[in-house]
Write a structure and sequence with these properties.
alpha/beta; 10-stranded antiparallel β-sheet; 9-stranded antiparallel β-sheet; 45 strands
C-alpha cells in the first residue's frame, strides 16, 4: 500500500506518523520505538532538521542531517534539571522551531494504565477516570470509541454515555461539540457537516437542531464560541507517570543504538529486507499500516494489515510491544484550536483494533504470550481481584498469599515439579521414574490451569454474562499435557526445566493414557469445540459422563477384532479435580402422585431409587489467553455408601449391592443395548447427565436473584445429538413441578433456551426409546412427553388441517407393536434452532429426514459446518510444519486465523519451498513407520504413497470397497510384467478404526483387511509395490501420528450418508490430498481447495435413490461389473481365507444399499489418476501444500463463532490480565 499525505505506519516494533511522500516520511513526523519518542523534521524517511527526543526520563533537543545527529541544543530531565543547555548559542529561528516542537500536538503525550480501558462490547472500547472519589463512580471523564460506527466520544460520561458539558463526538467525518444528555446533544453546541464542509452553532434537542445560531464554512469564525464551551480535563498531572528507561536502550549507549536503529526508517521495504537493514538482531517482525488519511476519521482511515511476528526472537524483545501496550497507552490532549487528535487516535485505534479482533482473526494483544518465558520480571504477576471488601478484611492474609500467579521461570517450574514428586506422589529422589515425572509435570501444569479457571469463573460471575452449556454423551479430549503446555505458551520453559531433571518432555507425552470418554467424531468434535470456546474467550461449560471404562480397547488376534476392557484410570488422572462439594441426587423409578393445591393439579414424583452424581472437572485452557473453562464430568455414586445393617447380619454382598448398582451407571461408554438391561443402563446414563447438569446450571443461575423468565438471557444449552434430549423434559418438570410455573410460561422458556445439533442423515440412527422402558424408569417424564406431544400436534393440526401424514410424522410417539419415543422429534420441538453440520447434510434435513418439521418451522433450521481445532490438529501434531509456517509468515498468529495461510500461495511455485514441505511430510512418515513397527510389527517404506483410511468401521463408510480395490490392485500387479509395473506408484494402504461389538459385518470387514494384509505383505513378488497395514486401537493419540503422514486419505462414504466428517478436515490441514465422494464436508473442501486439488468420484446424493432402485431390480451379474466380480471370485476361492462369504453376500444379493458395486469402477479410475500424479513429485507437492493453506474454513474457531452468533447469542468475556505491580491490577470489590 502506498502511503500519501498524512498517515500512520507500524513496523518492526516501531510506530511512525506524519506526512508521507512515496511511502517515506517527509516533513513533520513522529517516531516511537520501545518507549523512545522522536518528534521532528524528516526527509526521505530519515531525520533531517530539528527534532525532540524523549527517552527514559529525559528530553533531548537536537539537529539531524540525513539520519545523523549534527548538533545538540538542549538536554534535560523531566523534572527540569538541565544536563546540557546550548540554547544561548542558537539563533531565534532555531529556538522558535524547538518551541513549536515542544508545543506540537504531536508531543502532548501521556501514559496511562491500560487497566482503565474497558471493552464494552465487540465494537466499543471505553477509557475513563472517576471525577471525584466521593462521587458516583458511574459519572466519569472518559473516551469511548466505536469501530462499527466509526465514532469517537470524549467528555463527561454517565453509565458509558456522554452526559455533561463540553462533550465531543467524531462520527465518520462529522463533528459535534457541546452539552450532552444521555449520549445526545442537548443545549448549545457546534456541528460540523463534512459533506457540506459547514460549521453550525445551534441549539440542539436529542441531536436534532431546533435553532440555528450561526453557520460558517470557516471554523476560525466560530473559534470564540468554540473555546467558550468548557472541556473536561481528562489528562492531568495525577495521571502522568514517568516514561520508563528502556531495558534495551540504556542511557550510556543510546546515541549509537539510536542512529543505527532509526536511520534505516524505510517503510517501503519488505519485512525480510528490513531485517537486513536493521542492526538489531532478532527484532520482532510486526507490521501495521494505517493510511491513507485524508480527513479526520472517515470510513477509510484505517487499513490494518495482519500482524507478522517472529517466534525466534530475543526473550526481552519478544515482549517489547506487548508489554509496552499492555502497561501504557500513548495519548494526546485534544487541541481545540486545530481540532486535531490524530496521535491520540492512532494509538487508541491500534490498541482497540487488536483488542476487538476475534480470535479467528488474531489473538488479543494482551495474551498469555506476553507473560510467558524466562524473563524474571514476568514471574511475579498480580492476579485480577474479585470479591467483597468484607471478605478481604476477614481474610486479608489469605488474599495476600494468593495474589500472584505461579511463576514460570525454569527454576520455579523445577521446584514445583519436585514438590509434586514428593508431596503429591510421595516419591523419593531414589525412586523417581519417567511415569512419575509425567504425573508431577501434569500436576504442576494443572496448578496453573486451576488459577486461571478460578479467575475465569469468578469474572464470568461478576459480569453476570450469558453462558453456553454444551451437553454431549462423548468427549474425546485426547491427551492433555502437550495440548495444555502449548496453549499456555510454556513449551520451551518446560522443555528446558524437564531436561535438566533428566527427562525429555516429548517422552513424557507418551506416558499419558487417552481418556476413554468417546468413540468417534461426535466426541472429538465436542472436544474441539471446548478448545475453541476457551480460546475465543466465550463463557462456556462442557458437560459429560466420567466413564470408568471406554467403549473397549481393540486388540487384533488372528486377524479379528477382540474387545478388551479399556480402564483408562488405572494409573489415575492428574488432570481432573474431584468436586466433593458438587454432587446432586438423581432419581429413578417410583410413581407420580397427584394432588390439588388452590384448585390446580400438582404432580409429585416419588422416586423408587436415588443415586448421586458427583462432579469431576477437567480444566480446558484457551490458546494464549488467561481464560480457562472446564469440562465437568459426572460419576455415579451411591446415595448411601454402605449398608451396615446387612453387613452386621453377615450378608456382605448385599451390604455393597447399592454401591455397585450405582457405580454401574457410569462404568462403561455405550453399554451393549441388545438386551433390556443394556437399554435401561444406557437410558440411565443419559438421564443422569441431564439431571445433574440442569441442577448445576440452575444453582449457578440462582446465585443472583432474578425472574425465571430471564433464563434464556443467561443460559444457552446445546444438545450435541439426541443423547441429552431428555434435558428438555427435565427442565420442564423442574419449572412446573418444583418452581410452580404454568405450562405455557415454562414452555416459552424451554423453547428459547435449547439448541439441537443433528449428526446423522440415516433414519435408523435416530435415537428412540420404548414407551414401557421410559415409563418405568422415568414415569413423570413420560407424562410430560405426552403433554408436549398433545400441545404440539394441536399446532400441527391448526397449520395442516386434515393432514394425517403430518400428524404421524411429527408426533413424538412412533406407533407400532412397540411404541417408542422419537428423541430427535423431541429435540427439534423443544429447541429454538436446529443445525446440520455440513451444507449437504443441512439440506438433507430440510428435504428428507426432517422435511415435515422444516415445513412446520422453516426458520428453525440452519447450517453450521463442522471444524477442528488447529491447535491440536496442526500446531501440536505436526510441529515441523507449524514451525515452517511460523517462519514463512513471520508469526504464529495463523493458529488463530487460519486464513493467513492463504497468503503463502506464491510458495506453490517455489520449488525450494515445496521441497521443504515434502521433507516434513517424509519426517512424519518416518514417525508413523516407527509407530507401526512397534504396534503392528510391519516394516514400511517411507518412499511409498501412504494411503490412509481411519475412522469407525461401518458399511456406509465403505472400508469394504477400499479393501476390494486393494485386492483388485494386487491382482493387476500380479498380472503385469515386472517392467510394466512402473505405472503403479508403490503404495502402503493403512486402515484403522473400531467396529461396534455387536456389528457383525463391520467385524467381518476388519477380518478381511487383516487376511488380505497377511497374503499381500508376504508376497515377495509384489510387496515392494503394495502393502496393507491395520492400525489397532485407533484413538486421538494415534491419530496425531497417523494424520500428518498421509499422502492420500480416503473419505468414501456413499453420497448422502455422512453428515460431515471431521477427519477429512484434519488430513487436509496437514497437507494430505483427499480421495472422496460427493458427501459431507468433502463438497465444501473441494470448493475451498478446487476440484483440481482433490480426487472426487462416484454418485451424487440426488442420484442415489434411483441407483438403489436400479440395483434392486437388476441381475447381480449385470449390476456388478467384471473387474469387481473377479475380486469377489478371488475372495471366494479362499486365497484370503474361507470365512468371508457373509460379507460378500451383503453386496451380491440385490442388497448393495451403499452402492459399492456402482461406485467401484469410478473409484478405480480415480486411483489411476492418483498413480499418475504421484509420479510427478513437484506437482504432487504443490497440490498437497495448496490443500493445507486453503483449509482455514475448517477451523473450529470459525464454527464456534457461528454458533455464538446464530444460536447462542453470547459474546466473548475476556478475563482481565495480570499486572506487574499490585496497584495496577484489575479489581472488582463490592
Amino acid at each position: 500500500m502506498l502511503l500519501k499525505e498524512k498517515g500512520y505506519y507500524w513496523s518492526n516494533g516501531s510506530f511512525y506518523y506524519g506526512q508521507w511522500i512515496d511511502n517515506k516520511i517527509s516533513g513533520m513526523g513522529l517516531f516511537i520505538n520501545n518507549d523512545n519518542i522522536i518528534v521532528g523534521q524528516f526527509n526521505n524517511g530519515l531525520l533531517h532538521g530539528y527534532c525532540q527526543l524523549i527517552y527514559s526520563n529525559k528530553f533531548k533537543y537536537c539537529k539531524y542531517e540525513n539520519g545523523q545527529q549534527v548538533g545538540l541544543i538542549k538536554y534535560e530531565y523531566f523534572n527540569g534539571e538541565i544536563i546540557v543547555d546550548n540554547t544561548q548559542t542558537q539563533d531565534q529561528e532555531e529556538l522558535d522551531i524547538i518551541n513549536k516542537l515542544n508545543h506540537s500536538y504531536f508531543l502532548i503525550l501521556m501514559k496511562t494504565q491500560l487497566k482503565n480501558w474497558k471493552l464494552v462490547n465487540q465494537t466499543q472500547l471505553y477509557f475513563s477516570t472517576i471525577i471525584n472519589q466521593n462521587q458516583n463512580e458511574n459519572r466519569r471523564i472518559g473516551v469511548l470509541y466505536d469501530t462499527k460506527q466509526n465514532k469517537f466520544e470524549y467528555g463527561y460520561f454517565l453509565n458509558q454515555q456522554l452526559d455533561g458539558k463540553g462533550g465531543i463526538i467524531f462520527e465518520s467525518g462529522d463533528k459535534y461539540i457541546g452539552d450532552f444528555k444521555n449520549g445526545q446533544l442537548n443545549g448549545i453546541g457546534i456541528f460540523y457537516n463534512k459533506s457540506e464542509n459547514q460549521y453550525t452553532q445551534s441549539r440542539f434537542n436529542n441531536n436534532e437542531i431546533v435553532e440555528i445560531i450561526k453557520q460558517s464554512k470557516d471554523p476560525i469564525s466560530l473559534r470564540n464560541q468554540w473555546h467558550q464551551i468548557p472541556i473536561p480535563e481528562l489528562i492531568n498531572k495525577n495521571h502522568m507517570t514517568p516514561i520508563k528507561q528502556s531495558n534495551y536502550y540504556s542511557s550510556k549507549n543510546y546515541n549509537s543504538k539510536l542512529s543505527k536503529s532509526i536511520s534505516p526508517m524505510r517503510p517501503t521495504i519488505s519485512v525480510k529486507k528490513q531485517a537486513m537493514y536493521s542492526q538489531i538482531k532478532n527484532y520482532p517482525n510486526i507490521e501495521y499500516k494505517f493510511g491513507s488519511i485524508q480527513s479526520h476519521f472517515g470510513k477509510d482511515d484505517l487499513n490494518i494489515i495482519k500482524p507478522y511476528r517472529s517466534k525466534q526472537i530475543n526473550s526481552y524483545i519478544k515482549q517489547t510491544l506487548d508489554n509496552y501496550i499492555n502497561n501504557y497507552l500513548m495519548m494526546t490532549k485534544i487541541n481545540l484550536s486545530y481540532f486535531t487528535i490524530d496521535c491520540f487516535f492512532v494509538y487508541k485505534q491500534f490498541i482497540y483494533k487488536y483488542l476487538k479482533m476475534s480470535a479467528s482473526e488474531s489473538k488479543t494483544l494482551m495474551s498469555r504470550k506476553s507473560f510467558c518465558g524466562s524473563n524474571s520480571n514476568m514471574n511475579q504477576l498480580f492476579r485480577p481481584e474479585f470479591g467483597s471488601t468484607q471478605s478481604l478484611a476477614n481474610h486479608e492474609r489469605l488474599w495476600h498469599l494468593m495474589q500472584n500467579y505461579l511463576p514460570s521461570d525454569k527454576k520455579s517450574i523445577q521446584e514445583q515439579i519436585v514438590n509434586h514428586v514428593e508431596f503429591s506422589l510421595a516419591r523419593t529422589r531414589f525412586d523417581f521414574h519417567q511415569v512419575h515425572c509425567y504425573q508431577a509435570v501434569s500436576h504442576s501444569i494443572r496448578d496453573r490451569l486451576i488459577e486461571s479457571f478460578n479467575d475465569t469463573q469468578l469474572y464470568f460471575h461478576e459480569q453476570d454474562c450469558k453462558r453456553v452449556y454444551y451437553l454431549s454423551i462423548e468427549f474425546l479430549i485426547g491427551r492433555c499435557l502437550q495440548n495444555a503446555v502449548g496453549n499456555l505458551g510454556l513449551q520451551d520453559a518446560y522443555t528446558d526445566a524437564v531436561q535438566e531433571l533428566g527427562y525429555k518432555l516429548e517422552d513424557l507425552y507418551d506416558e499419558e493414557v487417552d481418556p476413554a470418554l468417546g468413540n468417534g467424531g461426535l466426541g472429538r468434535l465436542a472436544a474441539c469445540f471446548l478448545d475453541s470456546l476457551a480460546t475465543l474467550n466465550y463463557p462456556a461449560f462442557g458437560y459429560g459422563i466420567r466413564y470408568s471404562y471406554g467403549i473397549f480397547k481393540q486388540l487384533i488376534q488372528n486377524g479379528q477384532q477382540v474387545e478388551a476392557p479399556d480402564y483408562w484410570l488405572e494409573k489415575g488422572n492428574p488432570w481432573e479435580i474431584e468436586r466433593l462439594d458438587v454432587q446432586y441426587p438423581v432419581k429413578f423409578y417410583g410413581k407420580v402422585v397427584k394432588r390439588y393445591e388452590n384448585g390446580q393439579e400438582k404432580s409429585l414424583w416419588e422416586a423408587g431409587e436415588t443415586i448421586v452424581a458427583r462432579a469431576y472437572d477437567t480444566p480446558i485452557p484457551g490458546y494464549m489467553t488467561f481464560n480457562t473453562i472446564a469440562l465437568r464430568l459426572w460419576r455415579s455414586v451411591p446415595a448411601n455408601e454402605f449398608d451396615f445393617t446387612s453387613f452386621n447380619e453377615g450378608d456382605y454382598f448385599k451390604s455393597l449391592e447399592a454401591r455397585e448398582k450405582a457405580e454401574y451407571i457410569t462404568s462403561v461408554l455405550y453399554p451393549n443395548d441388545n438386551s433390556y438391561a443394556g437399554k435401561e443402563l444406557r437410558l440411565k446414563q443419559e438421564y443422569l447427565l441431564v439431571s445433574a447438569t440442569l441442577q448445576d446450571i440452575i444453582r449457578r443461575f440462582k446465585k443472583v436473584r432474578r425472574d425465571w423468565s430471564t433464563l434464556p438471557e443467561k443460559v444457552a444449552i446445546q444438545l450435541n445429538d439426541t443423547h441429552p434430549s431428555l434435558a428438555i423434559v427435565e427442565l420442564l418438570r423442574i419449572l412446573i413441578d418444583q418452581e410452580g410455573m404454568t405450562h405455557a410460561n415454562a414452555w416459552d422458556i424451554i423453547s428459547k433456551t435449547f439448541g439441537y445439533t443433528n449428526h446423522t442423515v440415516l433414519p435408523e440412527a435416530l435415537e428412540k426409546w420404548g414407551v414401557d422402558l421410559l415409563g418405568s424408569l422415568l414415569p413423570r417424564h413420560l407424562e410430560i412427553i405426552y403433554f408436549i406431544n398433545l400441545i404440539f400436534l394441536n399446532k400441527v393440526s391448526a397449520k395442516f388441517p386434515g393432514d394425517t401424514h403430518k400428524l404421524s410424522a411429527l408426533s413424538l410417539i412412533e406407533e407400532g407393536p412397540v411404541k417408542k419415543i422419537r428423541m430427535a422429534n423431541l429435540s427439534i420441538i423443544g429447541s429454538h434452532m436446529v443445525n446440520g453440520v455440513a451444507r449437504i447434510h443441512s439440506d438433507l434435513l430440510k428435504t428428507d429426514l426432517f422435511k415435515d418439521h422444516y415445513e412446520m418451522r422453516p426458520k428453525k433450521f440452519i447450517n453450521i459446518t463442522n471444524g477442528v481445532a488447529p491447535r491440536r490438529w496442526l500446531r501440536s501434531c505436526n510441529q515441523q510444519l507449524a514451525k515452517l509456517y511460523d517462519e514463512w509468515l513471520g508469526t504464529d498468529e495463523w493458529v488463530l486465523n487460519m486464513d493467513m495461510l492463504k497468503t503463502l500461495e506464491d510458495k506453490c511455485e517455489d520449488q525450494l519451498a515445496l521441497i521443504q514441505f515434502m521433507k516434513i511430510k517424509r519426517n512424519n512418515k518416518l514417525r508413523l513407520i516407527k509407530w507401526v513397527r512397534q504396534y503392528c510389527n510391519v516394516e514400511v517404506n517411507a518412499d511409498t504413497l501412504f494411503d490412509i483410511q481411519v475412522k469407525r468401521i461401518h458399511e456406509y463408510k465403505r472400508q469394504f470397497m477400499n479393501i476390494l480395490y486393494v485386492i483388485y490392485r494386487y491382482l493387476l500387479l500380479k498380472d503385469t510384467p515386472t517392467e510394466g509395473r512402473r505405472k503403479f506408484a508403490p503404495r502402503t494402504v493403512f486402515f484403522g478404526g473400531k467396529a461396534a461389538p455387536g456389528y457383525l459385518n463391520a467385524k467381518r470387514i476388519i477380518k478381511l483387511i487383516n487376511s488380505v494384509a497377511e497374503v499381500i505383505n508376504h508376497d515377495l513378488d509384489t510387496n515392494h509395490y503394495l502393502k496393507v497395514v491395520f492400525l489397532p486401537n485407533y484413538n486421538v493419540s494415534s491419530a496425531e501420528i497417523i494424520i500428518p503422514a498421509s499422502d492420500i486419505s480416503q473419505h468414501i462414504s456413499t453420497a448422502g450418508t455422512e453428515a460431515s466428517g471431521t477427519s477429512n478436515m484434519k488430513f487436509v490441514m496437514n497437507g494430505g490430498i483427499i480421495l472422496g465422494t460427493w458427501d459431507g464436508a468433502n463438497i465444501e473442501i473441494a470448493e475451498e481447495v478446487g476440484l483440481d486439488n482433490i480426487f472426487i468420484f462416484g454418485a451424487r446424493e440426488e442420484e442415489v435413490g434411483k441407483l438403489i432402485d436400479n440395483m434392486k431390480n437388476s441381475d447381480p451379474y449385470q449390476y456388478i461389473q467384471k473387474p469387481l466380480w473377479n475380486v469377489i471370485q478371488t475372495i471366494r476361492s479362499g486365497i484370503f481365507g474361507h470365512d468371508h462369504h457373509g460379507l460378500l453376500d451383503s453386496i451380491t444379493n440385490r442388497n448393495d444399499f451403499y452402492l459399492v458395486g456402482h461406485d467401484f469402477y469410478h473409484y478405480a479410475q480415480a486411483q489411476i489418476k492418483i498413480d499418475q500424479l504421484y509420479q510427478d513429485k513437484i506437482s504432487w507437492a504443490k497440490k498437497a501444500f495448496y490443500n493445507s493453506i486453503r483449509s482455514g474454513k475448517f477451523s473450529s474457531d470459525r464454527t464456534i463463532h457461528e454458533y455464538a452468533q446464530k444460536i447462542w447469542n453470547i459474546k466473548p468475556i475476556v478475563v482481565p490480565q495480570p499486572t506487574a505491580n499490585k496497584q495496577d491490577r484489575f479489581k472488582i470489590q463490592k
